[in-house]
Specification:
Distance between the termini: 111 Å
Number of strands: 0
Helix content: 55-70%
Largest sheet: none
Length: about 750
């Protein structure tokens, strides 16, 4: 649209209008905005999707990626999240392989580069939105709208709402989905370039490729499939030049010429719609077949509006959520990693002042839609139609209209819709500039918006570098969000600050009295601080609220064991195993209970179950060795110790336990080698030196025994057994010296 571009000539200098320089500027700005996150940690959902996801490791067959969800669970499982993004997981796996492990820098760098590439691609997308698809006789596009496309791409590149997708590694799903979404759209545009944009003609190859790219986008992030809907809208309203106002008028007046409308008689259009519809239906059918079961089960705290009894209450709150998403696009200053759990209280009556927000949203949307569909200016119709298309269509999967989603507001869901917002904002700035007398003031405002957005991106990227900053940044945005307080508390607990962690866990439970995970973690800390009565009350309440909460049942069993309530503890452990059959830690704790009760065979069986489920469970192996050693079964203890070291060859605690057994079996040389190897791995363990000294003492190497007794006592002067043995050795050495004299 030449007029719109001309209106922006005082904002965008002509020196950067060449496509190469425009894309270079956009790419540079996008990298500057989020470069601070390059050396950040894995934060929030990254732990589950990456660190704890076995699909990233080489031992997991590549074929499993096509049967697992985003978090590594089988899609057929009733507990699966049903988020099917195998291509995104494949890129994580490549990151893991190329970087040699879980080194977050390589993951973050890929995300930053992806956003840079998408921002550069946006220059071409916005060029189509603002300039249309008119070609010269030589096949070159006319009306590239360089100023409009550059400004819109800069607004997109520097939008702070993108921080979650770029700085959070799991946001790669949105980035990859957006990348293939845009490629699909540009591919669909290419279908008309190949034919010189002749009326009713197209390249079937590019249409089919567009459908394929849409399928690839969906395999990266579910909303990617919506590009087929955008392509259809683009084809009907822009390529087909269907004037909705004209159609409505003819329908109302029962005009017989309705059947002669070019768009409706265009066989090429109908063929393309058939390809898009059949391709989309086929992809969705395959997605449904792979999913195996129904949609995922979300809880009320994830999306409280969807659980409201009244349809009116649900509708009002859904629309309020839409207005909040619009506000985040307009004013992305209050950003939060999580908007659930009371962050946004429900609107329960029409008298709530927040209803004004959704009324304002629909007032603006209806006005834009009327202009997009009814304007006599075809250029204006194209810009507003595609701007609204990009804004609304990719957002539909997050709208709760077709199925319940597991969040209230998600900034990541705005990555693609923000492109539509940037197009509409650019159009509005152009219209404002056309009628404004002080054009330099408009230019200053635009540059100010860009500068503030870049600054906000940099600040927000810094907050996403580690969990402590991320979680604390949310306290001022969502003080009523129990999950925010829970995550701050968890972060403090991981750092050893239990007193502060307790305060935040208590606040999380106060805000959400049914928050079982907060109760479980708080109960664990109280257990460690020996506040057993309150810990038992909290954990009992947690399993009462959620009877299948296996971790809480296990922790309740540990507390009951500490309170000497052995029967109740055994029952709690058994209940935990009933709800989670493959639970090695619970078998380990059950074994400890049986050992306390001198039920040695049961203890050994429980620990053996733990090692079968988790062969690297060092504590279970150790307890088996020690119990067999203490009960005089040295041969069996030795066999178990050797089996354990084959599986975990570098575990110094296993070396120590087996060395003790071998020493008692008078296999001094092998025992000595294991003790020395354990000490090399953990040189400051007083018990390792003390027991090696006992071995030397028993073996008759008294000088070496004296040396290691002294090292052990330097490391732990309070070790009474070592002191006693050292005293015996000194008397023995004194007696030897007297004999020698």
């Amino acid at each position: 649209m030449a007029e719109l571009d001309a209106n922006l000539d005082h904002i965008i200098p002509s020196s950067v209008l060449a496509p190469f320089w425009a894309k270079l500027v956009v790419g540079f700005v996008s990298l500057v905005c989020f470069a601070r996150s390059y050396d950040g940690d894995f934060v929030f959902d990254d732990s589950e999707a990456i660190i704890n996801n076995k699909d990233l490791r080489a031992e997991t067959p590549l074929g499993d990626l096509w049967h697992h969800d985003f978090w590594g669970s089988r899609l057929s499982s009733n507990t699966s999240h049903k988020s099917y993004r195998p291509l995104t997981i494949l890129t994580f796996r490549m990151n893991y392989y190329l970087s040699g492990g879980f080194y977050p820098m390589s993951f973050h760098v890929v995300n930053i580069l992806l956003h840079g590439g998408i921002s550069v691609l946006m220059v071409d997308v916005f060029s189509v939105l603002f300039g249309g698809l008119q070609y010269s006789s030589r096949g070159r596009r006319l009306n590239l709208a360089p100023r409009s496309s550059l400004l819109a791409a800069l607004l997109f590149a520097a939008h702070p709402v993108h921080t979650e997708c770029v700085a959070g590694v799991v946001g790669r799903a949105d980035l990859l989905g957006a990348l293939f979404f845009l490629l699909s759209f540009l591919g669909y545009c290419k279908a008309f370039r190949e034919t010189g944009n002749k009326e009713g003609t197209h390249s079937t190859f590019w249409v089919l490729l567009s459908v394929l790219l849409g399928a690839v986008a969906m395999l990266c992030k579910e909303q990617g499939i919506t590009v087929l809907g955008l392509n259809a809208v683009f084809d009907i309203l822009v390529i087909g030049k269907l004037n909705v106002l004209e159609v409505v008028q003819k329908v109302l007046h029962k005009d017989k010429s309705l059947e002669n409308l070019g768009a409706l008689r265009n066989g090429g259009l109908l063929f393309r719609m058939t390809l898009l519809a059949s391709g989309g239906a086929g992809v969705l059918y395959m997605r449904w077949k792979i999913m195996g079961t129904g949609p995922p089960a979300f809880t009320e705290v994830d999306n409280p509006a969807s659980f409201a009894d009244s349809m009116l209450v649900r509708a009002i709150n859904y629309n309020y959520y839409y207005s909040l998403n619009a506000w985040l696009l307009l004013c992305p200053w209050w950003l939060c990693f999580d908007w659930s759990m009371g962050c946004i209280p429900l609107i329960k009556s029409a008298g709530d002042w927040r209803v004004i927000a959704l009324a304002a949203l629909w007032f603006c949307l209806i006005g834009l839609i009327c202009q997009a569909l009814c304007s006599e200016d075809s250029h204006k119709r194209r810009i507003l139609t595609l701007g609204l298309g990009f804004l609304i269509i990719p957002f539909l999967p997050a709208s709760n209209l077709f199925f319940r989603v597991g969040f209230v507001v998600a900034e990541r869901a705005l990555y693609l819709p923000s492109a539509g917002y940037c197009a509409l904002l650019t159009f509005g700035l152009g219209a404002l500039s056309k009628h404004a007398k002080k054009k330099k003031l408009i230019a200053a405002v635009v540059l100010g918006i860009l500068f503030i957005n870049v600054l906000r991106c940099m600040i927000r990227s810094g907050e996403w570098r580690n969990e402590e900053q991320l979680f604390r940044s949310a306290l001022s945005v969502c003080p009523l969000n129990a999950k925010v307080h829970y995550n701050v508390g968890k972060n403090l607990a991981d750092k050893g600050n239990q007193t502060a962690a307790i305060r935040y866990y208590r606040e999380a439970v106060r805000l959400n009295p049914k928050y079982v995970h907060a109760m479980n973690n708080l109960g664990n800390i109280l257990k460690e601080r020996n506040e057993l009565q309150e810990a038992e009350e909290l954990l009992s309440l947690a399993v009462q609220i959620q009877p299948d909460f296996a971790a809480a049942w296990m922790n309740l069993g540990i507390v009951q064991n500490s309170l000497k309530r052995f029967e109740a503890a055994e029952q709690s452990y058994r209940t935990a195993i009933k709800h989670r059959r493959k639970y090695p830690d619970c078998y380990y704790n059950l074994g400890r209970l049986y050992a306390d009760l001198n039920r040695h065979v049961d203890a050994l069986n429980a620990w053996r179950n733990a090692t079968v489920l988790k062969p690297e469970h060092s504590l279970a192996w150790n307890n088996m060795i020690i119990l067999l050693d203490n009960t005089g079964n040295l041969a069996q203890a030795e066999a178990v110790g050797r089996e354990a070291l084959e599986l975990i060859p570098n575990d110094h605690s296993l070396m120590f336990s087996l060395a003790n057994v071998l020493g008692k079996s008078q296999k001094y040389k092998e025992s000595e080698a294991l003790f020395l190897k354990a000490i090399k791995a953990h040189p400051n363990a007083a018990s390792y030196h003390g027991n090696l000294a006992v071995l030397y003492h028993r073996w008759g190497h008294l000088d070496l025994a004296k040396k290691h007794y002294e090292i052990s006592l330097q490391l732990d002067p309070t070790a009474s057994g070592t002191k006693e043995n050292y005293g015996l050795l000194r008397r023995k050495l004194e007696q030897k010296q007297k004999k020698d004299v």
